[in-house]
Amino acid sequence: MTSALLSIRNVSKSFADVDALQSVTLDLNRGDIVGLVGGNGAGKTTLLRLLCGLYQPTDGEVTYIDENQVEHPIHKVRSNLGVVPEATGLYSRLTAWENIRYHSRLNNVPDKKSWNRALRLARALDIEDDLQRPTRGFSRGMRQKTALIRALAHDPEILLLDEPTGGLDVTSARRVRDLVRKLGEEGRTVIYSTHQLNEAEQVCDRIIIIHNGTLRADGSPKVLMELTNTDSLEDAFVNLTQDDSREVDVAEPDSKLQRFWTRITTRNNPPKGGGNDS
Amino acid sequence: MIPDSLRRIWSVATKELLDFVRDWRTLIALVLIPILIFPLFFIALPIFLQGEMAELDQYELNLEVQINDSEIPIELIEPFNTSKLNYTIAPLDLQLNNLSSANSDALRIRDGNGQPHVILRLEETESNSSESWNYAILYDSTSELSNEGRSRVMIVMQNWESDIINHTLSQYNLTRDEALDPIHWDGDSGEANVATSAQSAGLALSMFIPMIVAIWTASSAIQPSIDLTAGERERGTMEALLCTPANRVELLYGKWLAVGVVAATSVIFQLVGLLFAIIFILPSDTLGMPSLSSWSIISLLLSVLLFAIFVVAIELALAVRAHSVKEAGTVLGPIVIAFIVPAMFAQFVNLEGIEWWWFVAPIFNVCLAMREALLNINDLSHISLWLFSSLLYAFLAVTWAAKQFKREDLVESIS
Q1: CATH number 3.40.50.1370 is the correct assignment for the domain at A4-265
Q2: Residues A22-32, mean pLDDT to the nearest whole number
Q3: Is the separation of the CB atoms in B394 and B313 below 8 Å?
């Protein structure tokens, strides 16, 4: 029987006048590999950040449920989380191992233990020889792999991945997907944010579609296709997100003063003699 | 057993320091330059000044002597020649109100081209002295050569005047001291100063060490403060860091500790360089070493430390509010002035009968504390005032920085 590990209840998040996420309710179970799918500005990153405890919900709550069914606020149990943000966030003057060690130390994991684990993961991802190199010269793929090892070095129960295969070559992307599947088999919960529907279909056993800050669908790829009467996840996605997407940057709103200043210094002046489409 | 929180703060601080050490440019800027700046300054400045003076000495300058005669006094000929002054003689305009009225000669000097660099006007007058003359030197204060010419002519004139005085006095059987210095100091005036050389050194150093500390602490903390906050956001490393179990206050303390160590190291290295220059480079009679009591040394170090806590916290808080590295730099640049100006004013506050509130005014309090420490003044009421006010300011600054660090938008990458 699967039990809920993360509970998201009626969670809304607003930034100034923009509702980034509206009344999302979800339960994420142990061992789930969940694909978080949505267009630009749909609210995927906001949801991921709420799941990491980086954002506090405007309404609702995000909790972690332990084995005794006791609920904890998510920001109190961060050591159970491993996160790979889209930007990877590696320090270029430090070696790959020093980057991994830094985060392991912040997770109170002894160096020896994290080294052994990092070495094992580096072998699986084929960057064993690069662990002692500064990350300055790393390719996007190597950075992504290093960030993945860093996220896993303290052996977290939940893994949050934001576009983990973005910019990777075919072989590297496959290695990452294999590793994610293996982590799911080990009973870890993986939340996998991606734009690529075929990748989500390959890796995830559950897909959550977010659109305009609302939860549009939640189920296995097969269920979503049946629900929309389509043959592919891509068609199902298009069907479920037909209305206009907002494509706004909802995060980090400017202050009122800055917005006022931007308004008076940004004039909508078309060039003289410019055409008018209307 | 070290609490987890302290261990995390330590991990952040050591990582940041490792990151600094890896960057050789930062090391040069914050370690090598501070330690070398004063020794090089004290070595280079005299060499430079001597070089510049020697360069001006090489020039032969054109002097026009305007006189009511076809010849100049014979006493001036040799000094003019040895001073590399190529003189010509011209008639003096008798219509002048006084010899300093430049009239049309002003244009000739300003023009430069082939014209005299300086003009000496000489007019003999009636007097009881053996000789008496009125004179004026016309020159252009904005021209280096004209200024140099004026200096050379001035020296010649002063020597000539001295010779005339001596000659006149000798006619009355008087020596120069009898006539011009009838009330005179007996012995070496330096010996009459009862202050020890250490005390004098303390006084001299108290006039600029607090300012150096204020300037260097404020300026050396800027780059690390920006790098560790706005820089981390811009590079996208902040989000991953905020996802770790380290809470934001722990992260701030770790970063603050690292910036504080960098700024303090930089200031200490600069002071070491200054003391090295005083001991080994400056002539021994210029400035000695101050003799400080243990309490003065503790007081000095404590004031520097509290000032660093205050400054670093404010700079971190401001940098964390910035939306980009560029914006952080734009904001923090002028902030240094806000630290420097009070530090500069504090040098001129009279310590004798000083009002108590100076020791609670921000920045003034630590600068005055440093001055008193260097002068071996251990006034308990002053110490209590600056100590508690500095602790309060440091606490407020760190609290404000911690509040800024808890901002939700800190997670945003601003690249």
Answers
A1: no
A2: 90
A3: yes
